[in-house]
Amino acid sequence: MCKRFFFLCFLMSCGFAAMAQDFAPIKVDPNHHVCYGTVLDGDTIPLFYLREVYVTESGSLLTQQEIKKNQKLIRNVKKMLPYAKEGKRRLDILERQAASLPAKQRKELIKQAEKDLLADYEEELKACTFSQGKVLIKMIDRETGRTSYVLVNELRGKLRASFYQVFARIFGFNLKTHYDPQHNKDDNLMERVIISVETGRL
Predict the structure, then answer these.
(1) Rounded to whole angstroms, how far apart are CA atoms 136 and 51?
(2) Residue whose C-alpha is closest to residue 175's, from 145, 135, 147
(3) Are 17 and 153 in contact (CB under 8 A)?
């Protein structure tokens, strides 16, 4: 039951969204490279994803001593960060697609997306540990700027959000937890681990 809760955290924090991308494959060049893009007013607009470039202070990176001391946190961040980023991506897509829908269609959209997400990630996230679940909740707030509780409240209503919060507290979690690397030393350490992972230093 505890492990299944980790999946519920991910499910609600990525908005139950498993929508199709706005951009689709539109062309394959002679070397068999797929080019993504969209057609706007008869013109084909290509889409290319560029690798992010980070500009950080030297103090933001982990020292070798910190790397040795925080191996468990580093493992957890490496495992859970892709899920948090995928949650953010899916939430953005959901919000764009649901913005102009009436309430009934919006609800149907979320239900269908929930089924798709179950198929994609349920078994993976049910195998996560307690500490990985806590890391995921923090990362969701980092990526989306909203706690898991706020996301559920916005997408499924206050009653559902309160139910999940009570359920979470039974297992030692708090969906209202904020990610605050500026004032919380544990969050600051996690942020430095994330930066080190994202920049390829870990």
Answers:
(1) 23
(2) 147
(3) no
* Secondary structure of residue 1 in the 3-state scheme: coil
Is the pLDDT reported for residue 92 higher than 70? Answer: yes
pTM of the model: 0.69
Token reading at 36 = 């993504």
Whole-angstrom distance, CA of residue 96 vs CA of residue 93? 5
The pair of structure tokens assigned to 3 is: 């492990």
Three-point CA angle 110, 101, 116, nearest 5°: 20
Could you give the maximum distance between any two Cα atoms of the chain, in Å? 57
Tell me which H or E stretch contains 103.
helix 103-126
Q: Which two tokens stand for residue 164?
A: 């999940």
Is a pLDDT exceeding 60 seen at residue 28? Answer: no
Question: d(Cα 104, Cα 90) in Å, to the nearest integer?
Answer: 20
| For residues 175-201, average pLDDT | 91
Let me know: does 12 contact 4? Beta carbons within 8 Å.
no
* Residue matched to tokens 């979470």: 168
Would you state the torsion angle of the CA atoms of residues 94, 97, 98, 100, taken in this order, to the nearest 10 degrees?
Answer: 160
